[in-house]
């Protein structure tokens, strides 16, 4: 029987925890199930507007669907407890041997991300979704101007008291064991990062994900590892931390982990291009099998053609020629897309489902 634990406990207890980032329009059920089959241990829904979600059942139906099979089952290695005192070389060798050979079977975790500007709407949304997820996350990073004007997303980066009230409100409503995390961007003014991280932890944040760009930086700007490390230092080891930004390969994941001292790593665009990025199968680029599996999941779950099409375009971008990409972009139906994938040898032309 696999272990079922909340995301922050997974981060605290196991090595090399990999996370699929929240992505509006993209991190829906079929994509989450796909990346969960390739070593993404924690997945996120796209950002959901808490106000709409709690107000309207049709918004709930369109914003969130889940299935029993979306979480993966993983063999994970327990972290070695920090030891003090003189090192016993025999003991070290035994522990190293044990940690290689004794993996623990762990079920993946699903986190719903909400955008909210006040405690009540966030708590309402959390209460409605809590039976179906393993935790909720407060978006404190969306940089878009409409979001800033609505006082959600990155607006909250400099509103630590509001973040505190939102986290506390969710705990009051859903219980203090219900995990409430936050996802932040770094700030040019490091005092703001420090206040936000410290206040969120005091309010009971379960873990903190840190995107190493400021709200003014485009996704083409390089991520600041030193800014992530600073945020990690503000958490003082009281809760797990996660680094996010510019992870496109397994080796990027390893180096950002070791350079910032985080407990987990989170990828967004890298997983769109290669959903197997965290797995051995993805080390030479997007496996055909991932494209095939995604199309099957998308069709099976009734994902709209436009969404399936965009995902496939992301996955094939690096290997199609310009005319090939142009042709792919011109397709307007699922059967035409399936024919194209069969033509280029990704689908074998047999029945998909
Ligand atoms: C298409 C897209 C949609 C995104 N939607 C969200 C979202 O819903 N919530 C969120 O916190 N961040 C969102 N982001 C930001 C990512 O989660 C992530 O922080 C950012 O892309 C940096 O990671 P990366 O360099 O791995 O792409 C989105 C990014 C992309 C590319």
From TrEMBL:
Reaction(s) catalysed by this chain's protein: a 5,6-dihydrouridine in mRNA + NADP(+) = a uridine in mRNA + NADPH + H(+); a 5,6-dihydrouridine in mRNA + NAD(+) = a uridine in mRNA + NADH + H(+)
Pfam families per record: Dus (PF01207)
Keyword Flavoprotein: yes
Keywords recorded for this protein, A-Z: Flavoprotein, FMN, mRNA processing, Oxidoreductase, tRNA processing
Domain DUS-like FMN-binding: 20-70, 108-284
Keyword field contains Metal-binding: no
Cofactor(s) required, per the database record: FMN
Molecular function as annotated in GO: flavin adenine dinucleotide binding; tRNA dihydrouridine synthase activity
Transmembrane segments: none
InterPro entries membership: Aldolase_TIM, DUS-like_FMN-bd, tRNA_hU_synthase_CS
GO biological process: one example: mRNA processing
PANTHER family noted in UniProt: TRNA-DIHYDROURIDINE SYNTHASE, TRNA-DIHYDROURIDINE(20A_20B) SYNTHASE [NAD(P)+]-LIKE
Protein's UniProt name: FMN-linked oxidoreductase
Organism: Exidia glandulosa HHB12029
């Amino acid at each position: 029987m696999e272990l079922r634990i909340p995301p922050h406990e997974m981060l605290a207890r196991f090595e090399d925890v990999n996370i699929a980032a929240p992505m509006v329009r993209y991190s829906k059920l079929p994509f989450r199930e796909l990346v969960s089959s390739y070593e993404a241990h924690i997945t996120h829904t796209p950002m959901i507007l808490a106000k709409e979600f709690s107000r309207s059942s049709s918004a709930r139906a369109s914003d969130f669907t889940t299935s029993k099979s979306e979480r993966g089952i993983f063999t994970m290695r327990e972290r070695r407890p920090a030891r003090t005192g003189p090192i016993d070389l025999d003991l070290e060798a035994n522990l190293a041997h044990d940690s290689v050979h004794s993996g623990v079977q762990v079920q993946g975790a699903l986190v719903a991300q909400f955008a909210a500007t006040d405690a009540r709407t966030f708590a309402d949304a959390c209460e409605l979704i809590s039976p179906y997820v393993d935790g909720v996350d407060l978006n404190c990073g969306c940089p878009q101007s409409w979001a800033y004007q609505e006082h959600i997303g990155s607006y909250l980066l400099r509103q630590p008291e509001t973040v505190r009230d939102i986290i506390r409100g969710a705990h009051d409503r859903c219980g203090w064991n219900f995990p409430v995390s936050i996802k932040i961007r770094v700030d040019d003014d490091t005092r703001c990062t420090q206040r936000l991280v410290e206040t969120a932890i005091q309010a009971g944040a379960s873990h903190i994900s840190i995107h190493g760009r400021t709200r003014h930086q485009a996704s083409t700007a390089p991520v600041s590892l030193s800014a992530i490390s600073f945020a990690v230092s503000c958490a003082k080891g009281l809760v797990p931390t996660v680094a996010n930004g510019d992870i496109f390969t397994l080796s990027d994941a390893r180096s950002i982990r070791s350079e910032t001292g985080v407990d987990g790593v989170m990828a967004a665009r890298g997983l769109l291009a290669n959903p197997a990025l965290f797995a051995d199968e993805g080390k030479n680029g997007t496996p055909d099998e991932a494209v095939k599996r995604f199309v099957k999941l998308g069709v099976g779950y009734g994902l709209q053609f436009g969404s399936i099409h965009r995902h496939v375009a992301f996955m094939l971008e690096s290997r199609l020629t310009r005319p090939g990409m142009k042709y792919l972009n011109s397709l307007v139906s699922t059967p035409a897309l399936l024919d194209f994938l069969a033509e280029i040898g990704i689908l074998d032309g047999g029945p998909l489902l």
